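Agenda item 2: alpha-L-fucopyranose complex prediction
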Amino acid sequence: MNKKIATLLMALTPFTAFCQQNLKLWYKQPAKVWTEALPLGNGRLGAMVFGRVGHELIQLNEATLWTGGPVRTNVNPHAYDNLLLAREALLKNEDYAQANEYAKKMQGYYSESYLPLGNLTITQQLTDTVPTTYYRDLDISNAIATTRYTIDGVEYSRQIISSAPDQVIAIRFTASKTGQLNFTLGIGNQLKYQNVAVSNNQILMKGQAPAHLQPNYVDFKDTVALNDKPGCRGMRYELQVKAINKDGVVSADANGITVKNATDVTIFLSAATSFNGFDKCPDAEGKDEHKLAKDYLDKAVKYSWPALLAHHYADYHKYFNRVSFNLATLAGDANALVPTDERLFNYSEGAKDPSFETLYFQFSRYLLISCSRPGGPAANLQGIWNKEIRPPWSSNYTTNINVQMNYWPAEAANLSEMQLPFINFIKNAAVTGHVTAKEFYHTRGWAVHHNSDIWALSNPVGDLGHGDPMWANWTMGSPWLSQHLWWHYQFTNDKTYLKDTAYPLMKGATHFCMDFLVPYKGYLVTAPSLSPENSFIDDKGKQGTVSVATTMDMAIIWDLFTNVIDAAGQLGTDKAFRDSVIAYRKQLYPLHIGKKGNLQEWYKDWEDTDPHHRHVSHLFTVFPGHEISPIQTPELAAAAKKTLELRGDAGTGWSLAWKINFWARLLDGNHAYKMIHYLLRLTGSSKTNYANGGGSYANLFDAHPPFQIDGNFGALSGMCETLVQSQSGEISLLPAIPDAWAEGNISGLKARGNFQIAMNWKNKQIVTASVLSVTGGICKLRTATPLKITGVQARSVKTANGYLTGFNTKKGMLYKITGSKI
Ligand code: FUC
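Presented output:
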């Protein structure tokens, strides 16, 4: 961001009487379990800080440390023949069971897994194990975790950061009395590893990841071992630890680093892997992980703690400080004095705590800045935080909702750069997906299925017939991923990016969809087709999953076609292609309202096997799509609402988060708010629950359960959607503001067209607001009451749904707005 924009942004911050809220997660006791530990990250190096007294545990991750290597080609030469057979079974015979069998024969291999880097332990020699004072926190306005305790009159303090500018994790350990620090540092991992002392204050751990690992749900007994079979060996990794002491004595051997009689010690952790891109063998063609880690470390150790902090804060604040959000609260700052676990418990019990909601909002922004940085891999199912050698669902990328949800809030919450790793992943997936499209479907373009990984796997998973087609064979990855390519353009107005990056990829996904669609009874349909992970009861009373033209398939394709038509129009290019997409879009099997008044999920108005299923895939049309809206398509919006009512409010963490977005788009802020409450229910369970266990852990991580980060990001997106929406060519201010948020202010939210919004509201109506037009263009605002725009001739026009105020903006100009009562 240039200086001028930064200055203008400062001016955006509205003046209010609210106290600046205390953005900390804090606790009165150490973490017993991982979901009580506090996450730090610089996009690449992740740390989970337990804050223990005598035996500190810091669990570590490096974002590129995965099993496996580049994807194979020609994995299933029979796939295409079985596609034709599945189509015949579906379109000629309506034999869904038979189609299911053919679909199994269209499968390739499973994805790989994301791995932990290891554990750092700090064993401290203390005269007592029970401290007289104890405190730990995560300060999300500065991205720093602190643990403080007093024993025998000595206060010990550990502060820890994961620095993006210096690419190390740094821990400053101090004692309030001279020479009282006595501890040993150890490092270990569940992977095979070897520890070596490098010098008298430095050790390193090196190891290698397995060349392949089956997902945990496939073979629970499989042991994790280096796979030496011919071909590409697994990824190498290295962790280097160095202690810099101001006083006392430090020594090191292969077992660890020992510090004696010190007062102030800074510990540096540097790590790297041999990962060298999705298409390079991480062993034979890998990077020099030792040199990478050493170079980061050698550079960082030259800096003092204050210098490290200064670099870290400057970098972090650049992103985090873009948005401020406050809600009026009668409690003032009192709730911030309650420890976060208790606060979450009170909230679960129904306590009103608006500043907890804004803390959660900002925590999700914190998480995105911490787990997704330009140049690194996309945030996976657990962001970058994983302790398991065989993580749930491989901690990979699931493309039928989860990985997209990670990036739903990136643009609106003013963290556009954090979406770049995802865009890079999509680019890679288009490369492997091109081969998949050709080999499995004989189509142009690129195809991606249900799961992917750092290698950009794109084939249908299932190990050649062992996966259930209801998830394994889902085909709509490339069109759904393409939505994010388009959003990034819509929010940035970057035409060069549109022309060189987004459009060619979107066109490739469009080619795949055009070729995959088949004519059937006067329409273009998908066959085989799935509504992710859900099943139906057909006309004959039989349960099925593989069918024709599910609503989600048609909606995702409609979305891509609509976006690519718009993109080609904006670039003034490809007229013939654009015309053909328009013609295809007209023939898509349309949306239907079912007998219960709901939006139909399937080709026919079949019953659901599980009416409360966690996936509400057909409402892609409402969010993240925009085919249905209460303003433009009120009948369909009513049907979507009915669908949500029939589905019920319960679900997994991500399902609850999705429902916040649905209700916001349906302009029911109070129901959206109800879902926020639902998601912010304290749970300690890590036992997989597919039905109704969704909630939040004591460290505010989302609980599927188990932990999945998508719910954190989905909830942030939903909160943004209650405040600003911009999906239909206008910017709606406070479109679904809940009663509980009747008064508040926010600055720095983004809207499509590259506008930055600040608003101050009371009684759910705008008092003052401002729009910063970053790149110029027409701005159309929809509000409940008329607006005045300083220095601009603009009239608010009354419509059936509030007022519309349109005006032309100039690049870099800030427009001040006042609301008026009706
Ligand atoms: C999809 C969901 C599951 C889980 C998994 C990672 O398969 O249906 O609930 O979130 O992704």
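Discussion summary: The domain at 27-66+115-320 is CATH 2.70.98.50 (Beta-galactosidase; Chain A, domain 5).
Owner for follow-up: CH.
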